[in-house]
Automatic annotation (TrEMBL):
Family annotation (InterPro entries): CYTH-like_dom_sf, CYTH_domain, NeuTTM/CthTTM-like
Pfam families in the record: CYTH
Name of the protein in its database record: CYTH domain-containing protein
PROSITE patterns: CYTH (PS51707)
Domain called CYTH: residue spans: 3-151
CDD domains: CYTH-like_CthTTM-like_1
Source species: Hallella mizrahii
Length: 166
């Protein structure tokens, strides 16, 4: 897949409402290969692996170019050795809301306690229905970029997030 990615990110309220509403879940581990001017991610999601390259964001962090290609688990294992700063470990829950699917990520390790949701849109002005567990929008806030959380884990700045979202 390649093209423009348009997504919005939100904090998720404490509790397990998103788990009860999910129609699917998966375990994800991902690392980042240093690159100037782009984000290069290696991801293993259950029994599949992907190489993703994302360009710089624009429009307040909502839109950016994305290229993604499925790779073998063996290729991912080799590429993970090039990743710096460790690995993001999380569980992803898919929740249908209206005509959209929200991806809810529950982070582990140094990012434990953080739960975020993303929704991909067809345009920057597209309307969508938020599930009840969705909290404040954090689109464009670098604190909430997975690549940023490797060097600056949630455990070091969680006090910046209201108690009902950590």
């Amino acid at each position: 897949m390649s093209g423009l990615e348009i997504e919005r990110k939100f904090l998720v309220k404490k509790g397990d409402a998103y788990k009860r509403a999910a129609f699917s879940s998966s375990h994800i581990q991902q690392g980042y290969i240093p690159a100037e001017g782009a984000t290069v991610r290696v991801r293993v999601r259950d029994d599949k692996a992907y190489l993703t390259i994302k360009g710089k964001s624009r429009d307040g962090g909502m839109t950016r170019y994305e290229f993604e290609k499925e790779i073998t688990l063996d290729e991912a294992a080799h590429l993970m050795q090039l990743c710096q700063g460790g690995v993001i470990d999380k569980h992803r829950y898919l929740v249908k809301s209206g005509s959209h699917t929200f991806e809810v990520d529950e982070f582990h390790g140094d990012n434990d306690g953080l739960v975020m949701a993303e929704v991909e849109l067809g345009s920057e002005t597209e309307n969508f229905v938020k599930p009840d567990f969705i909290g404040p929008e954090v689109t464009g806030d670098p604190h909430f970029y997975n690549s940023h959380m490797l060097a600056h884990p949630f455990s070091t700045w969680k006090e910046l997030v209201p108690e009902e979202y950590r």
